[in-house]
Amino acid sequence: MPNVTFSNALFEQMGGVNWQRRSELSSRQSLDAEKEEQSDSSSVSDKKVERAINRHAVVVLGSGLDDIWQNDAQQAWLLWQNIMTVFGWDETQVAFFDTAHLVSEEMVFATVEEVIELGVDWILTMDDEHALSEMLQEGVQVVAVPDIESMLMDPYAKQSFYTTVVSLSEQR
Question: Which of 43, 52, 138, 157 is the most buried (most CB within 10 A)?
Answer without folding.
Answer: 157
